[in-house]
Amino acid sequence: MHDSAERCDAPKCHPGTRVAVQDELVDWIEHGDDEEDPKRIVWVTGPAGGGKTAIMGSTAQTCQKKGLLACSFFFSSFAGSTNRRYKRCLVATLAYQVVQHNALGDVGEHILSCIERDPAIFEKQVEAQFDQLVLQPLKGLQMEAGTPKVILIDGLDECQAEEHGGASRSPQEAARANEADQTEILHVLLEAASDPSFPFRIIIASRPEPAIQSFFTDTAHHTTKTIFLGDKYNPDADMHLFLEAKFEVIRRRCRLSSPWPSDDVKRTLVKNASGQFIYVATAIRFIEGSSGPPQELLNQIMALDRQDFSANPFALLDALYTHILNSSPKPPLAACWISTIFRNTGALSDGSGKPLPARFTQLFLESSPGESSFVFRGLNSLISTPPIDDHISPYSLFHKSLTDFLGDRSRCGHLYVDDPNELYTTRYLQIWKGKLFSPCSVPSLRR
Asked: CB neighbours of 348 closer than 8 A, spacing ≥ 6?
């Protein structure tokens, strides 16, 4: 639930920030039927660290105050409680909140009666649980003033599959199992949203992982509105407002003279964030939570790419990157590819420094056909890969600090690549020796 004790320190939008996207979500909840092509589901997505959970948490609070929130669930693979990692608690948590909602009349009694008749209901599949404990009790509910209108599900990509029988899975098997559970939940929610008697709208937030993105693109496109947290919502202005407010608090607390820091410093921090709130939020947490002088701590952040500090102001960001990169079937190889493409920028670029097309990069680096899709599987929230029929666009990063992370052994640990040029050199020699490709198979850059 959005207001559970475990989420007491969960990220929330700073006052005055992310207003546009929150207003769009609340407006859709209240007036979505008035749209030319009404949708029953909204998918909030975007790169890692884009603020999805903060937006969902703040939206849940707003909806609760307005009486719009029926129930919510916030998945978290990092949570101390395993109840937020697995699907087994999803329906029970949603049903509990519906029971507690005074505006839903005798729906709660129907749910409790169902549990009393079948105490083993929570051992059934998610579809059966949702049908008996949510969908069926809500049929016939008259939507009146004060009746809630929305269900919020955050962090679906962090839903993990439980291991049964004591047998451990390989990383590839675990990833497939996770995707199966996530897709199962999506199908259940889509079935509910497609039922005319189901009274609620549904908002789902997640990173654009392959299985989830495929579901919304191919299966649920007819009933889904997608909100991508990109430049449309002017994140730079929100981050600047956030920094202004936070630096003012630090200034007062430490009795620093105004203005501090300079506008150039704030603009640099916003630029380095590449649209991702996690960068500036982590930087502020470091300055606020450390014992050193604020200016010295700020200097460490500004000079991080030039000096090695024992203290790491980006521990949370590093943990996020490590977690996402470890979701690749071969994390060290994924890190090697990323380092080769983005740290060794002069290698896979044309004479002017422009990155070569992703298709060329794939054929150049692959040791076997299709390896690129395997290596970058699960990394959609970090790396933008052009469509398969796009032979011009290069790979791109959603967040610039990823290369800083991978270029520092003390930060990325086992993912560190000593020489980002080594893979390029090896492939280059293999091609010219004829061990990997025949000469005619090397892609032409004129296409």
From this structure: 340, 341, 355, 356, 360, 361, 364, 424
Question: Which region holds residue 413: left if phi is over 0, alpha if psi is between -120 and 50, else beta?
Answer: left
> What is the C-alpha to C-alpha distance for residues 61 and 76, in angstroms, rounded to an integer?
18
**DSSP letter for each residue of 27-39:** HHHHHGGGSSS--
C-beta separation of 29 from 201 below 8 A: yes
Q: Tokens standing for 317?
A: 């960001």
Tokens at 80, concatenated = 């101390």
pLDDT digits (tens, 9 = 90+) for 330-352: 999 999 999 998 876 567 877 65
- C-alpha distances in angstroms, 422 versus 278, 310, 337, 370, 385? 32, 28, 11, 21, 23
Q: Where are the alpha helices (DSSP H) in 84-234?
A: 90-100, 107-117, 126-130, 136-138, 171-193, 210-214
Q: What is the pTM of this model?
A: 0.72
> Which residue, among 289, 298, 229, has the nearest Cα to 49 in the 3D structure?
229
- Type of residue numbered 162: E
Burial letters for 325-360: b for 16+ Cβ neighbours within 10 Å, e otherwise?
A: bebbbebebbbbbbbbbbbbeebbeeeeeebbbbbb
Give the CA count within 13 Å in the CB-facing half-sphere of 402.
Answer: 30
Given this model, what pLDDT does residue 420 score?
85
H or E element, residue 412: helix 409-412
